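Internal QA ticket QA-208
Title: Verify multi-chain structure generation after dependency bump
Assignee: T.L.

Test input:
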Amino acid sequence: MPVDFSLCLTAAFLLLSPVGAVISNRRAGSPILYTASLLFSAALAGNALAFLISGGEPSTDVLPLGIPWMGAHFREDALSAVFIVVINLGAAGASFYALGYGRHEQEPRRVIPFYPAFLAAMNLVVLADDAFSFLLSWEFMSLSSWALVMAHHRAPANVRAGFVYLVMASFGTLALLLAFGLLAGPDGNYAFDAIRGSGRAAAHSWLVLLLILLGAGSKAGIVPLHVWLPLAHPAAPSHVSALMSGVMTKVAIYGFIRIIFDLVGAPEWWQGMAVLVLGGITAVIGVLYALMEHDLKRLLAYHTIENIGIIFIGLGLALAFRSNGMPAAAALSLTAALFHVFNHSLFKSLLFFGSGAVLNSTGARDMEQLGGLIHRMPQTAVAFLVGCVAISALPPLNGFASEWMTFQAILLSPSLPQWGLKLSVPATGALLALSAALAAACFVKAFGVTFLGRPRTARAAAAIETDIFSRLTMFIWAGLCVLFGVLPALAIDAIGPAVLGLLGARLAPQLPISWYLLVPISENRSSYDGLLVFLFIALSALFTAIAVHWLGSRAIRRSAIWDCGFPDPSPLAQYTAGSFAQPIRRVFGTLVFHAHEQVVIPAPGDVAPARFHVTLQDPAWDGIYAPLASAVSFAAGRLNVLQFLTIRRYLTLVFVTLVALLVVLAIWT
Amino acid sequence: MPDLAFDVAHLLAGSLVLVSLMLLYQDRLPALINVFALHAILLAASVAWQALVQDAPVLFVTAAIALGFKGIIIPGALRRIIVRLGIHREIEPVVGIGPTMLAGMALVALSMVVMLRATPAASPFAREDLAFALSVLLLGLLMMVSRRNAVGQVIGFMSLENGLILAATGAKGMPLVVEISVAFSILIAFIVIGIFLFRIRERFDTVDLQALDRARGDQR
Amino acid sequence: MDLILAFATQGVQMLLVAAAAPLFTGAVRKIKSRLMRRVGPPVLQPYRDLARLMRKEAVAAANASWLFRATPYLVFAATWVAAALVPTFATGLAFSWTADLIAIIALLGSARFFLALAGIDIGTSFGGIGSSREMLIASLAEPAMMMIIFVLALIAGSTQLSNIAGFMASSAVGLRVSLGLALIALIMVAIAENARIPIDNPATHLELTMVHEAMVLEYSGRHLSLIELSASLKLLLYVSLIACVFTPWGLAPADSGPIAWLTGIAAWLLKLLVAAFALALFETSIAKMRVFRVPEFLGAALMLGLLGALLRFVSAGF
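Actual output:
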């Protein structure tokens, strides 16, 4: 059965972990481990894919682990299978990439043992079929990824990242724990099957939704719970960053879908609206953060927040449509969200691979120190460019296909009866469009400043192309981005069974439609054909090039930069990332970040340089976390006394607590 | 016969609570140890009666353990300890005897209320039994809290354990394994605390726990 | 056979838009000059310019990458495909279902993405300023465009341009306030997207407020000619878009013959003439605005779109 196969391979990952600890110091240690990880994850992904395509029945398994009277339940259904594919495809890519990239790791002992454990944990979360195994795997995933974030622990920034991550992860698990407590009720039957049948969720639906949003949302990176994400994801080695950003956030999405769509069921319309609006805000704030950021890996991490927002827009729409008994529209929204999950895992991994290659060959993550890498690292540049186009939701690549489907779902909203939804859905659509356009601006900045122009530092000028494994991985992933942009029906049809299982409806199979057209509802309403758009563009570009070269001139002369007659020889006079983002900072930044620009121009005759200084405030950090931290610090100062009591006083505390609880019980029952 | 069974069990459990209150009342160590021995013997009797009534011979083992360890060996050992430590002074309750007794009565009332309200479905026999057990437990805890002397705390702890065993035997069909493990845990706890007492004595020349706080260097 | 015919009609449409685009630009320039009491260049001047540029050798900076050289072809191809998918003289062309309005707008976004990258490629400050502002304007225009699409989809129940045009031509529409608002918003977006006055001035290229022209400053020869042609095509696309959605009269229906097509072409050319006159009149009567007033301009377009959707909800009586 698929679930047994998956569990065996997950166990193999777990066994690989101590093996990794033993061989990590050997020179062959890292290739052996990454090769094994590659094989295991490829097998897992292949198995899940076969399950999806064959449309098999869900399989379950109970292992005598965990809570004694219950055991550990595992189940692989279509939804799990979709996410197993996402996880292990990303894992296979990261492992293959790490065959080259991992050789540059200074402290492999801090990476190799935790890497397979992290992969195992993510698979276990998706396979778990009772609350106990789910939470245990979830926490295991948090801790193993935390260990990887702390791999380069000598940098003070990474230590802070690790601390914030740990706090947020524990907080998220706590929220999930409470949510499961509410769902399972006092009988304590934590198997998902029992929760599904109990119908307890309806009583506390708003509380459950809040707790799941806190728990899964903090792992996924919903604003304002995102603060750890741009710190932690870039701190890890790049292949792990790719996994954390591209895959682990998806596991959080899985948690949300599993609990809200599967276990809770029957949503209220305002739940859909809450998730939707939250998604829209997350998307825009995430991309605005990214625009203000000049560190390549952090920029990518902020973009993860944006894409999580887009996915949550889809999920919110699905909830809203479902609550109004519109299964077809709900299926479209959920398919769009799941497709975007898949797409984001592809292009975000690709972009992190690229940023790892840049980091490796230049030692710089700050874009202001790069530039001109398209000449030094041409192949990395091509792959990175494909990723940039895909994440900017531009046709004909895959990011556009899934955002287009989300737009189609948004355009179905007028048939919703509630006024709140009628108004908030189009507004969210505008936010989605804004975030897509800002993402394009941001990736013009990211690619333009990093790869184009002239090198800004000697390091950038001396960069060399990265190793063969990294390049190969990036090209395969770029190819996948193109493939699923041109033939989105491949992924959409594979997602179908998962949507059917959750909502009782799915999109009609898209592959049989002629010309691989994508028709979400009906051909009268809307359609999009990635293949034809791609072919048309390719053919007309080719035709134009041939015609122009044949009819016109084909000569090209290289000369000095013109720049309207005022070229400045210094590469420092180029547009920088900061100056590129300046108009957007002025338009949106003053509102969101209280951006403040200060120009100091010395008096005439003074030879001091003019200074330009920008201050930005992080609204989430300053508005929520800083007050919270100072409150905690204050409370800790007050409660410090408790650390120095006598044994008898400690006993008294225990005693008083016990008596107080009994009194509560006596009064309340 | 069932009436008699109920009455005797009730009587024994009630006396156990009474002896717990007596424990609170004692302010001399030898007397405290004697009362604790009585506590354990009553427990043994109660468990034995349960064994008879429930027709569960395994419970006799529990009763024997209670009688042997807690009624004879541990009190004997404690007596030897206080002789070797030379503790002949009065123990000093932190709050006065009167308030402690009042608090004890309140706890008994509380546990009655809680248990009777929390378990309406159970048989009256089990309910009463559980209520008494909870009282014993809370009184043991109160004893640990109100005594400054380590020996007093050890006895409080063990009377608390007695309450647990009372509860366990009142519920039908508790496996023997659990009881044995409970008994052994108490024994181990006793050994550890015994060694601990000697260590304190060796180092600080007193078994007063407040001496420990001074040693931590953070007592104001 | 059907397939060949389908490709043929689509090919006719592609050639038609590519051929008509410089003509429209020339017409706008001519009318503008006349309105300013100048003689102005001939209407066919853009063709001559393009041909001249095509024949010249291209000059590229020493550090220009392959991206710089490939971008004109990519930009032109994407714009051309997008323009060919907007109904000009007939609805329901064989490949009109390839992309709906959202995809057409996104195709223009792809073109802009590469053009902005090419602006940065040489590493000059003019290129940077152009790219940066172009992306700002795009990011402001896109939400407004989305709201317009929302209103249109709300009324016509489709985002497929052929279907929208078909619905608008039917008598079921009538006069609607929300449509009027959407029209104004679409015109505002079109002005911003095409770098026309008051957002940008296509006639200048040496002042600090320039956007589009700064971005393509380093281009010359055939590359520049392709970029100019793409700009003309984009303008034509927007005009055709407005024409087919708001004035669908004369459009040949889906399964009509060559005669309907000819009348469709005539009607389309007439609409283009009207549009050129209106655009020229508007551009001569208004001054260019500061770059940082653009957000207000496009914010107003967004508000109009939202208002249109709202009014549509109210009037539909939900």
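Spot checks passed. The mean pLDDT of chain C is 88.
Status: verified.
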